[in-house]
Design brief:
Blueprint (H helix, E strand, L loop, with lengths): L2 H19 L3 E2 H8 L3 H13 L3 E5 L10 E5 L5 E7 L3 E8 L7 E7 L3 H15 L5 E8 L20 H9 L5 E5 H12 L6 E7 L2 E8 L2 E2 L14 E3 L6 E3 L5 H18 L4 E5 L2 H10 L9 E4 L3 H23 L9
Parallel strand pairs: 4-7, 7-8, 9-14, 14-15
Antiparallel strand pairs: 1-3, 2-3, 4-5, 5-6, 9-10, 10-11, 12-13
């Protein structure tokens, strides 16, 4: 890539990043915030207008005289779809990429055929494109997902065929990304508690018990994406000599296992904050056990709506991916009727 072309791409990225962080800005404000010259800002903005990435709107003025024009991301810049897929239901969130705050639509479906219903929903959103072309799809599911986005085992959605769904959506020109549902809850909590850089979230859902970890401000997956697969950890029971997966233990034994696992992690990882997403009566019992076990500096909070947090985390991931596509120029232009 030639130097001028590379510089244009960098300038474009800088201006769009600034617009994603603000509602609307005049061109002089863009120049001041980015450090670019007014001539450069004008040239980049004109290119973005022609591509329907941004448009001009009437700005606000605190003085008398001519009201300045402001630059704003185009409201039809793109649609993103976030899905929380569980054995018994599918929750979906449709968001507008460029709107402040993102406008959204939500739907909940009972699951009969997860592949057919997920593919049908993606096709419907792709066709309707309520906020512009479908830019990104993120599906959260109860299975390990590695750094490359590959879904591993154990997968609590045995009827869900990732390869078949990818093949179906490829025909639409839509790329689907995946994430573990416990990780999505944890990313949502990180958004809520940005002051904590070392955080763990324990959640229980009908699909099993999981944990998400934020270490050093980043989601920790482990080598194969299995970090946090707490529910599958073998645990000895007082009732038999056999070892059972933690999530299949009777609640009394599971309470002990969870409490001592959290205690070990709080000391070993030097955690700052732990969030518990369990049923209310179980939360009370676990809260009674933890104070004597955790590292003294650890604070504990509760998450009362795990499905909502999972869907919010999926939306955050989908928006980030779509924004990166826009910033890198790796997307088809927005066509406005």
């Amino acid at each position: 890539m030639s130097q001028p072309q590379r510089l244009r791409r960098l300038n474009r990225r800088q201006i769009l990043t600034t617009l994603f962080d603000h509602d609307q800005l005049t061109r002089p404000q863009l120049a001041a915030l980015t450090g670019l010259s007014k001539v450069t800002v004008n040239a980049v903005v004109q290119d973005l207008i022609e591509q329907n990435v941004v448009h001009l709107v009437t700005g606000t003025s605190h003085t008398t005289g001519r009201v300045p024009q402001a630059v704003e991301l185009h409201p039809c810049l793109g649609t993103v779809l976030a899905i929380d897929l569980q054995p018994e239901f599918l929750n979906a969130h449709v968001l507008g990429l460029a709107l402040h705050p993102p406008r959204s639509e939500q739907a909940r479906l009972s699951i009969e055929n997860p592949n057919e219903q997920a593919a049908g929903l993606i096709e419907t959103v792709h066709r309707s494109a309520p906020f512009g072309p479908l830019r990104a799809v993120l599906i959260g599911l109860p299975a390990p997902v590695d750094h490359a986005g590959q879904v591993g085992e154990p997968n609590a959605l045995a009827a869900f065929d990732v390869c078949a769904l990818n093949a179906a959506t490829k025909k639409l020109g839509v790329s689907v990304r995946y994430e573990n549902d416990a990780n999505l809850v944890t990313l949502s909590l990180q958004d809520r508690y940005p002051e904590f850089t070392h955080l763990a979230a324990l959640i229980e859902r009908p699909s099993g018990t999981g944990m998400g970890l934020i270490l050093g401000g980043h989601l920790y997956r482990g080598v194969h994406g299995r970090a946090g697969e707490l529910g599958r950890s073998p645990w000895p029971t007082r009732y038999t000599q056999a070892r059972e997966p933690l999530e299949q233990l009777p609640w009394a034994a599971r309470l002990d296992a969870i409490a001592y696992t959290l205690a070990a992690l709080s000391h070993t990882l030097d955690l700052e904050h732990i969030v518990l997403g369990l049923q209310p009566e179980r939360l009370c019992q676990l809260h009674e056990r933890l104070p004597d076990l955790l590292a003294p500096s650890v604070t504990v909070a509760t998450e009362t709506d795990v499905p909502r947090s999972a869907l919010h985390g999926a939306g955050l991931c989908a928006l980030r991916h779509a924004r990166e596509l826009v910033l890198s120029g790796g997307f088809r232009e927005t066509h406005v009727a």
